[in-house]
Amino acid sequence: MIDFLVHFATETWRLTAEMAGWLLLGFAVAGLLSVFISPVWMERHLGGRGLAPVFKASLFGVPLPLCSCGVIPVAASLRQHGASRAATTAFLLSTPQTGVDSILITYSMLGPFFAVFRPLAALATGVLGGAAVQAAEPDAHRSSADGRGLAGANGVTDDRPRGLAARLRAAWSYGTVTLPGDIGRALLWGILIAGLIAAAVPEDFLGAYLGRGPLSIALMMAVGIPIYVCATASVPLAAGFIALGATPGAALAFLVAGPATNAATLTTIGRVLGRRTMLIYLATVAVAAFGGGVLLDWLMPRAADLLPALGDHAHHHDGVAWWHHVFGAALVAVMTWSWWRSRRQPDCCEDGACHAPAEGTTMQKQEFVVEGMNCSHCQN
Length: 380
Prior knowledge:
Number of strands: 0
Number of domains: 1
């Protein structure tokens, strides 16, 4: 028993240390994105008919570090300010599947080919779903009331901090407190489960029982659809599945379906965009997860000569370099700091994270009750 616990602790720390540097970099980039991308600019590009707004919405969503519940109020705001139903659906599909942090973690744990393929799959999922909504509901585009376009009656409020110093402080707060707090619990469970799998389950266990064909991809997709797992926390689980013998395509099916769907998100989408759009959303996730998995399994052997093998990243390493231990300790410190700050529950304006609206503007507020979620987007 002692030997098993030591093995479990060793594998868990190895996973943490190897992903820590990339995750910290992802937090930093996500913090900068949160304050330097204007919501007004995004809304301006997502209105109108045709596939161009759909493609833009899907593309904009790929690097944003929003989970499947956090993306709902953002998408609702885009819809309110003139984004078409198709573009909103595309944004809802692509955003929770990836983020700059999860892309870097995917590179660290699953290799460069997987790290490139995953955001492309998210982009394709968004475009496919948006195009399907546009085809099913050709009148999906909706301009704002009174024909005033994106600005509405009083203009769209951009509440980002003014000035470089204020934005950098807000980026630091987002990257070291808000985002780690959002994904911390799910990430911890993902690492612990992946460590348990590495310590307790023989390699090729899944391959022996599930096989390596389309059936295994369909099963992993079915596992991912009903559960809630964020894009970053799902990566250690996917690496664990591959270490047990699952194909890369089966792991991708889980990475597409898990972050993009859960019961609460689907219910809210049904309320905001309608039941038909919700069904198209769910069908798109299923098609993209299965089709992307099949395509990845077909491509991986053909890319073996061009890029490092997936097994070099998903399976056990002989050792962990000293700088990985340093990054691992830094990640633990950031997560602990985020947890401590969240326990304090400071006033929302204590660190300058919120700002008064400009004179002459009207703040509009929408609330969504999303049960079963505990990130800051749904708690506050």
